[in-house]
Description:
The protein contains 13 helices and 9 strands.
Amino acid sequence: MKRTLVLITLVASLSTLYAQKVNVKKEFKFAQSQTDYMLQEIPKAESKPEQVSPRTFENGKLKLVVSKDWTSGFFPGILWYLYDYTKSPKWLEEAKKFTAKIEKEQFNKGTHDLGFMIYCSVGNAYRLTKDERYKPIIIQAAKSLSSRFNPQTGVIRSWDHHQDIWQYPVIIDNMMNLELLFDATKFSGDSTFYKLAVTHANTTMKNHFRPDYSSYHVVDYNPQTGAVNKKMTHQGYADESAWARGQAWGLYGFTLCYRETKDQRYLDQANHIAAFILNHPSMPKDLVPYWDYNDPAIPNTSRDASAAAITASALYELAGYANNKTYREKADAILSSLSKGYHSPKNQNGGFILIHSTGHRPAKSEIDVPLTYADYYYLEALLRSKKN
């Protein structure tokens, strides 16, 4: 009798887990339908000729951005992921077309976001086509990004604005741009990019994290001495709060650093961040976090589907390195939640796939809206769910 009960419990557990598996084929079919609609809507948007990529749908309007915007590379990346899954010449053509509009940013030395801009577009282009013309673009973008590195601080400068607030600000998001540097070393044979990425990761690990492995958003350095001036959370609820997307960036960033270096410290860091995220008392049952884990208005505040999508994608990769089935189960559960409760209605919201993301709540910007990077990491997570 006891063995029967154990068996029934095991079967029930497996059934629950299976029920959480998202239907990848169905999700990509929906993603294609929405993206088809978006391609129809882009020419109708109130935009200027230099605006090249959709960023959000806000106040009833599809909003596009110029190529130097930090989000410009995500829509080309979405097109590349559709091609990755379908192998359709249609998506290949569209991906190439929208990627070409971003390529000039390889020379942009005024931003730390070249990983998002160039790697999500051109990086995926090379990965899927192996067209050699994309390699020099990635290498040049890495050179431009490297120009923002200060040996004294040991990190890549993030923002140049608001010099009245900080001297040398570095944000946790910057961990995501290191993948560009790692690939530049592979393509060029120049280890400088690799060493710079590792130095940035080590300095970030030292200064950005609290004892519970939550992360500040911004650390401001003295560019002359490398000393830390102050630690802040610019896009979160408060300086000492845990901004949800920032935690996801950290998880993803240190996971990719382990992939590229096999340094155990990065794997340990990623595991610690995952524990903070997954065990946080304010994490909802559906594993789609509120925009900030410490917002006192919880549960009466906005969610961030983008943070959930980034987390799911990172957990699929981390599950393999950490040999942790729980990570995969949690990632499956996140994708299941996003597919069931965070879909845009068909042919609405400008063609975005997911809704209920939060961009910059303190600035009253992009609150409870679709965001292009939510869709990008959602599709990436779906692809990883099949491979890992």
